[in-house]
Design goal:
The chain is mainly α and about 500 residues long. It is globular, with a radius of gyration of 22 Å. Helix 1 crosses helix 9, helix 5 runs antiparallel to helix 6 and helix 17 crosses helix 20. The protein is built from 20 helices and no strands. It binds phenylalanine (PHE) and sodium ion. Phenylalanine (PHE) binds next to helix 1, helix 2, helix 11 and helix 15.
């Protein structure tokens, strides 16, 4: 018997899940810094250009492949042509055996910090608390040292919750979770941003965030950052959006959903940026220094700068801190769940594995595989894997997806299918964006990154560490995807059906 594919209960459930994947830690601690660092308000120009010329067309492509070919990334690409099946495996393998392992560890840190915020446990020196007391950071990826117990404990919780969501399937698990998570995240964010805007010094912070410097638009680096952020922020090139769209019923507004997802994600980033820079402005004001002296991003922002600001807020700071770290947990979980689902969907499609068994096995693997990131060398492992993901993963996969579908398949089949089911019509221009514009842009970015990579070792790590962790990971996952692509499908018949043929 053919098992029925999981299905979203409502179109909104799908859109919320896609937004849940897109909105992640990156929206909160990456976007605003990028804007600040690349021309402030002027950065919105390359950012929006990237959104409309690359983000939305590629999101439509990923939704379109999943919906028209009806499959997770490996199945959908095998239906584009059997030769491309490996390209469907590669991203789902490296996200499952790479990204989600450390992403979950960062969520675990956030869980711990929810509790630390209650008692302001970081004391007078949040910097030393985070790196020394909490992480016991060893200084190099090769000095692994011991597993950090609080991180380990929270990580167990994170994987149990992930399991509870994945095991319940598409509508009762992922859709339901996002129906709770997304409104919750919005409420938390509105409270936090509103609160931050009222802090003294907020105005200085926002000025630093958005003060436009149009001269920066002449720099290629600014444009490359914008395109890079758009791919990352929309969870493109991971096979996630392909799997999510494969769970839609036949008549579904694909193009409309893509536009809504993209705008909601970017809107959220912009909003979160107001909060982040208000807080930084407040900190600068309290310490009597310029905003530029307190600006940091990513891990440093969440685990060092925010704790400092929270301590400066007095008793109410504890509430602020709890809400802030909780919002990171919620934003992170809805993204990590989407990663696990991309891999789950792939294995279920290929081998007909029972979802309940698979969910258990994957969550145990996820936990055990993540242990390395909970050690004293873990921070550096995270940094290296994250670098390889951002610099190459998304870009290479996105590029190859466009080439595979644009040049080795009748992309017109997908466009016509989308126009039959969607509300917003897609002109023939889209075919050319997929065939030429995107490969061109992504190609330039890739070459630029490679040149930079080879010119000096990333982050000052030794070449040996970069090869052993980063390059090794790229090659092993690539090899695994070729091997999996050679295995037979449990149901060959699946390979023939598309919706638009
Ligand atoms: N889109 C997420 C963000 O902006 C990152 C992410 C990518 C999460 C892929 C999950 C999967 O943070
Ligand atoms: Na995002």
């Amino acid at each position: 018997a053919v098992r029925k594919r999981g299905q979203w209960k409502s179109p909104w459930g799908f859109v919320l899940a896609a937004i849940g994947s897109a909105i992640g830690l990156g929206n909160i601690w990456r976007f605003s810094y990028l804007a600040y660092d690349n021309g402030g308000g002027a950065f919105l120009i390359p950012y929006l250009v990237a959104l409309f010329t690359a983000g939305i067309p590629l999101l439509i492509l990923e939704f379109g492949i999943g919906h028209e070919r009806i499959g997770s990334a490996p199945l959908a690409l095998a239906k584009v042509h059997p030769r491309w099946e490996w390209l469907g495996w590669w991203p789902v393998i490296f996200v499952m055996f790479g990204i989600v392992l450390y992403y979950s560890v960062i969520i675990a840190w956030c869980v711990d910090y929810v509790f630390y915020a209650v008692r302001l446990s970081w004391g007078a020196d949040p910097d030393a608390f985070f790196f020394h007391t909490f992480l016991g950071a060893s200084g190099a990826p090769s000095r692994i040292g011991a597993v950090q117990t609080p991180v380990l404990a929270a990580l167990v919780g994170v994987w149990c919750l992930t399991w509870a969501i994945i095991v319940r399937g598409v509508s009762r698990g992922i859709e339901l979770a996002n129906r709770i998570f997304m409104p919750l995240l919005l409420v938390l964010t509105l409270i936090l941003v509103g609160w931050s805007l009222g802090l003294e010094g907020a105005r200085e912070g926002i000025r630093a965030y958005l003060r436009p410097d149009f001269s920066r638009l002449a720099e290629p680096k600014v444009w490359i950052s914008a395109y890079g952020q758009i791919f990352f922020t929309l969870s493109l090139g991971f096979g996630i959006m392909i799997a999510y769209a494969s769970y839609l019923p036949h008549k579904s507004d694909i193009t409309g959903s893509a536009v809504v997802t993209a705008l909601a994600n970017s809107g959220f980033s912009l909003l979160a940026g107001f909060g982040v820079f208000s807080v930084l402005g407040f900190m600068a004001h309290s310490q009597g220094v310029g905003v530029e002296q307190v600006v940091t991003h990513s891990i440093g922002l969440a685990f060092v700068a925010y704790p400092k600001a929270i301590s400066l807020m007095g008793p109410a700071g504890k509430v602020f801190g709890v809400l802030f770290f909780l919002s990171l947990v919620v934003a992170g979980l809805s993204s990590s769940v989407s990663i696990v689902e991309a891999f789950t969907a792939a294995v279920v499609d290929k081998f007909g594995t029972d979802r309940r068994t698979l969910a258990g096995v994957l969550c145990v693997i996820g936990f055990v595989g993540g242990l390395i990131f909970t050690t004293q060398g873990g921070l550096y492992w995270i940094d290296i894997v994250d670098h390889f993901l951002n610099a190459y993963g998304l870009v290479v996969v996105g590029l190859l997806e466009c080439v595979a579908v644009g040049w080795f398949f009748r992309i017109e089949t997908i466009r016509r299918h989308l126009n039959r089911v969607s509300r917003i019509p897609l002109g023939p221009w889209w075919n050319w964006v997929i065939k030429l514009v995107l490969p061109g842009i992504l190609g330039v970015i890739l070459v630029q990154q490679l040149v930079e990579e080879l010119s000096r070792p990333y982050g000052g790590y030794s070449w040996a560490s970069l090869i052993a962790i980063g390059w090794n990971w790229v090659l092993v996952t690539l090899l695994a995807s070729f091997i999996l692509a050679m295995r037979p499908w449990h149901q060959e018949a699946d390979l023939r059906k598309g919706r638009g043929d």
